[in-house]
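(Structure overview)
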Amino acid sequence: MPLGTLDRTPPPFFKQGFSALSKLLFFSALALFLMVADTRFTLTQPLRAALATALHPVERMLLTPLQALAVVGDYFAGLGQAREREEAALRQLAAQAERASRVEQQLQENARLRELLGLRAQFAVRTEAAEVLYEAADPYTRKIVIDRGATHGIVPASPVIDAAGVLGQVTRVYPLASEVTLLTDKDAAIPVLNVRTQARAVAYGDPGGVAAGAGMELRFLSNNADVEAGDRLHTSGVDGVYPPGLSVAEVVSVERRVGATFAKVVLAPAATPDSARHVLVLEPLQLQMPPRPAEPAASEPAGPRRKGVGRG
């Protein structure tokens, strides 16, 4: 074939149209225009909604295996947790059964001893359930207000407890509400009994130690007193207000300084005043105790003194 008859035009593969930079600028401007138009006029919102509606069954179908795997995993995890909780509950039930048998034995022994010694039985304390309304507005005190007052039979000096122990004492009574001073108040005091040593003492409120998990202290306790960290303190019942045996606090630390007369004993209250919602108001024991014997009348004053005879 002669060379002059050959087609010398470049094939379509090598033909060039718009430059790459021109295409980039055009499509960038188009994308920017579409984004602005969609933002201002929501042009693609119907299209987006139609696509989402059409793809929703597909998404649900694709998610079905993952959801099935998650359900199976949760089932086996819950089964394992249920078995662990069942074992823990059985252990706790066995411990409670043992404790209940010992308590029952101690109650029977206590009843026999009281019958043997001719002591009177424990007082039957009247109780009244109440709910905490709010804390007192005074920032320098530790007080709460409950929704039971004089119309419900609440009297001043009534002990207030929660599920953990003694919370405080009613110090002011209104017709439909009462003010309770907590044990962590600076003016609060309660007679206590050391469960380990059976030694009596008085616990006082210490508001400065509330932030550190304490809030009470034993004052005027000799430096060589038998008290240790971890000792549990209960109400002694000798004050005629609190029934005996109520949990009050636990000893956190004991600091004995050389040359000091008294030890510094820090306590953590058993009750939880900051999270207490429902409480129980007890009747003071002094309302059930027999009246104290009257004091003997004072002797008649002697007759008028005989004036001494002056020296002549």
Q: What stands out?
A: The chain has two domains: 22-121, 127-287. The chain is about 30% helix and 20% strand. Residues 22-121 form one domain.
